[in-house]
Amino acid sequence: MSDAAPRSRQDQAKEQAGRQAARYVEDGMRVGLGTGSTVHWTIVALGERRPDITCVATSLRTHELATSLGLSVLSPDEVGALEIAIDGADEVDAELNLIKGGGGAHLREKIVAQMSARFLVVVDESKVVERLGAFGLPLEVLPFAPGVVLDRVRALGAREIARREGLSDNQNLLFDADFGTIDDPAALAARLEAIPGLMEHGLFLGDQVERVLVAGTDGVREIVNPRVSG
Ligand code: 5RP
User: Fold this and answer.
1) Which of these, 50, 93, 101, 111, has the minimum number of CB atoms within 10 Å of its CB?
2) Which helix (H) or strand (E) element contains residue 146?
């Protein structure tokens, strides 16, 4: 008899979504590998199948997982551009805007997503929301002047900002900012990007998301972005 704990429905859904996304990866592709417990299964599926691909990892732990499974991982500069990137998300709204960074990897994740011609997102149903904001917005901040940076974030409407333990893979500080419901993600993203020392925020705008694979109790559905051709 196995003494492994039974897996939750959410964990099973994450595996389904993650594995389904691996089907989009073909021989010869340069592939961006996201971070988190859902895209974990994409990486596992690729490790099982071992297509002839070159990967870029969005975090040290993804790098470790992918190489341990025999996948070839190079740095972003060595690869230059990607055919496809696959990553998880913490929230997805109706316009396919995302909050990412629950794992603190959003700076590298954004670089890798922007390197890619196609960006696919894998989530379980609990991540789909009408409007972003309940999760709290991850922020990566340069340790030089965090108080100054966070004052400017508060001036944009953040009600509370909580510091996370530890540092990002880039040796920066990590925070979660509570903006309440985010009515205009593009406007908030633009204002945050104007703050020096705020290395990255976790808003990813829907205009770069090709599709979202959402796993629920009835299997995986795909939300395709009509504004982004695959
Ligand atoms: C890491 C991320 C993750 O993709 C996001 O937190 C979702 O993670 P999970 O699939 O474990 O729910 O943005 O920085």
Assistant:
1) 50
2) helix 146-155
